[in-house]
Design brief:
The structure is a homodimer.
Chain A (H helix, E strand, L loop, with lengths): L3 H18 L3 E4 L2 H8 L11 E5 L6 E5 H10 L7 E4 L11 H11 L6 E4 L8 H10 L4 E4 L3 H6 L4 H24 L6 H14 L38 E10 L2 E11 L4 H20 L6 H13 L10 E4 L8 E7 L12 E4 L2 E3 L4 E3 L2 E5 L4 E3 L8 E3 L1
Parallel strand pairs in A: 1-5, 3-4, 5-6, 8-16
Antiparallel strand pairs in A: 1-2, 2-3, 7-8, 9-10, 9-11, 11-14, 12-13, 14-15
């Protein structure tokens, strides 16, 4: 997907960080980081797998399940000597663990007693995986470097930005489909079916990949429970619906949220939407390289404070390359206390919203930082949508 | 979704197992197990959350992120005193960890120094989560009970079997859509878009939920890399395509796989399909309660051995209620060495296949064990499909 030069450059920056952190061997288990360093791309993260970066070696090593070694051959830039595998006896077994195999492998290649970096806070590096690894490598020194590669991913290459623009094109279409489809009497799942169709078919020029999170479109009182997924009940008149979805292109995401009312909105909803729209517009206008994430949050807070509002959750987060269950990069958050300095080609999902008990308004944009400000990835009307 | 009586019965069986294992407090972090015990259902497993079962208490406690506490209120049978939460400062923070909060909570309610069971091998219980929990609860004794609740889930209630039948109805439709759509010159992603549309729209009577794995449909040489996801390249004449998908109804799955050829198959593919079909038919006919999983595998092995074939990966696995990234239950596997005894209302995905380097044939069924044999959930022709 990227040139070998781009992967080599990513590997070089990874090794520089390893050197600074005193890490000799890095075990990369986060699927997004595995993809970032090697191109590896398959739905195989439900079994243990990793990419091993050894400071003094030219190529990382992919290691995983036997039947996925072919996926490594097809999707990575690694030569066949750098692809290793364990057999199916290790899969979901009560007597064998893939980390037993991997520990023996590390020992065999002579790095089992080194300073080994692991991603302790990663969905696919379980408590058990770490225990087995420690058992198998009694002389290794383990260090937690959970976000080492994640932080390198924050500043995108121009090609990565282009991928996210493609993702945004898909997000625009999926959002338009959602707005077209939502109506009184329509089932929630039928709206999601139409969204998925659009997300995956993409455009005539390029197809869509699966987003790391399913479309979410809570309505009515459920807007205060934003991660409840759809059901087969129908939308009712006067409900407010918050749609949050992403376009995805070759694992790169552009999330987008909008709010729709079924029938004419009440004055309260209309007023609230105006506050949110003014807030996001002011925030996007203010963003500049050199600002900190908490300064971005402060712009929003001050904007809505004029109308007496406060919001205590995060306003946004770094996004890009990702696998389920999350499209956030888990590095910078746009919130109080986050002093990350914005730099050109960083990308975020800015997701401001205000919720009451039985309705809420949320209008979001994914953007990247430019040399002089920021640019939203998607071009989609920033308004409350009304389905009469 | 289920009656409070059914949840109470599940809780009772859980406590019986806890008692046997010497566990006083069980921390359930597997989303499927959380759902099984409480009904909790939301796409919130990308942040730390759990259900706490305390041996002497009537209700479990749900604990998670503040904005998901409303989802717990809407989807579980728990009263509001049994729903606790941490604030957004703990989300993806480098200075605070949700397990710090949860450790303090367990201490506060007086169980922080007990024998605590944890699911060590669960995607959402990270190495870091366990470290923080141990730090916060220095006087607790931890025991690994990864599959304690998973094993209880193996034997389905009649209502769960009905849910899986609904899922199978959706799987049949999605498979028919896939077969109708695949053709020379059609992009892989457009086939997946149509599959998703069908999976989520479901039927007029009930809608579809998101399956725990995306549709997989490798073709040509990629059939030997079964977890590679789709691209936007087009299907070519004479390619063999293996389609693996599931229908999902209220988180219950019925997976199904079939093989399609674009254009007339070669004699080799036709012959291979006959071997696989004979093998799966003989295996399904032989299944009886009282047999072991490895005895089921032996039926298949003997069937294909007549034609000189051997298959070294798993033939199947227990399935049902699940969340991404896997619809397997991680308990019984249909393979050599697994001595699990089949009992009525156990459910499996039987997925036999034979692969060469550049093509393969796979034809699967999800089935449940009955009093006298087994029944396939789906009713879909067990054949090689030819798209002329």
């Amino acid at each position: 997907m990227f040139t070998e030069e781009e992967y080599q450059e990513r590997l070089k920056r990874t090794k520089e960080r390893m050197d600074v952190e005193g890490i000799e061997v890095l075990l990369v288990t986060n699927p997004s980081n595995m993809n970032y360093l090697t191109g590896y791309d398959a739905w195989s993260f439900y079994v243990h797998q990793m990419v091993i970066v050894i400071l003094e070696q030219d190529q990382p090593i992919w290691i995983g399940r036997k039947q996925d070694a072919n996926a490594a051959k097809y999707t990575t830039w690694l030569d066949s000597k750098h692809i290793a595998f364990y057999t199916d006896e290790y899969v979901h077994s009560r007597t064998r663990h893939p980390m037993d195999y991997i520990a023996a492998y590390l020992t065999k290649i002579g790095v089992g007693n080194r300073v080994i970096g692991v991603e302790m806070e990663n969905y696919y590096f379980t408590a058990k995986a770490f225990e087995q690894l420690k058992k198998g490598l009694a002389h290794a020194v383990f260090k937690d470097v959970t976000l080492l590669v994640n932080y390198l991913r924050m500043i995108k290459s121009d090609k990565e930005i282009r991928y996210m623009k493609n993702a945004a094109t898909i997000a625009e279409r999926a959002m338009q489909t959602a707005i077209n489809t939502i109506a009184e009497g329509v089932r929630e799942n039928d709206v999601v079916a139409a969204i998925y169709q659009t997300q995956i078919s993409g455009t005539l020029e390029f197809g869509g990949d699966y987003p790391a999170i399913v479309p979410l479109l809570p309505s009515g009182e459920k807007t205060s429970a934003p991660h409840i997924t759809w059901s087969d009940v129908t939308y009712k008149k006067n409900q407010t619906v918050i749609i949050e979805l992403a376009g995805c292109y070759k694992r790169y995401h552009a999330p987008l949220a909008r709010t729709v009312t079924v029938g004419f909105p009440t004055k309260e909803v209309k007023d609230l939407a105006e506050v949110v729209i003014e807030g996001i517009n002011e925030t996007l206008l203010a963003i500049q390289p050199g600002m900190t994430c908490e300064e971005v949050e402060a712009v929003w807070s001050q904007s809505i404070a004029k109308y007496g509002f406060m919001k205590d959750s995060r306003l946004g987060y770094s996004t890009g390359l990702s696998y389920p269950p999350d499209w956030g990069e888990h590095t910078a958050s746009i919130r109080k206390g986050d002093k990350t300095i914005l730099q050109p080609n960083m990308a975020f999902h800015l997701i401001p919203g205000i919720w009451y008990d039985d309705y809420g308004v949320e209008i979001s944009e994914s953007f990247y930082v430019t040399d002089t400000g920021c640019e939203a990835f998607a071009d989609f009307p920033r308004q409350l949508f009304i389905k009469k």
